[in-house]
Hints:
By secondary structure, the chain is an all-alpha fold. The chain has helices at residues 2-14, 17-28, 33-40, 44-72.
Amino acid sequence: xxxxxxxxxxxxxxxxxxxxxxxxxxxxxxxxxxxxxxxxxxxxxxxxxxxxxxxxxxxxxxxxxxxxxxxxxxxxxx
Length: 78
């Protein structure tokens, strides 16, 4: 669990700042799409689109990190 949390933080840090911000606001701080939209001064549809792009980017980065970590720790043979 601690390992996964560390990977999550590293993945968030590697994202463009706006992506990391919206993911943290939504999933860590629990803000609604409407609240995030107001904070960014954009519409709710634009905010939902931004969140979708941020989630895809996070999944890509996290997957890459997790695969690299598994290979380095001998969990998966390269």
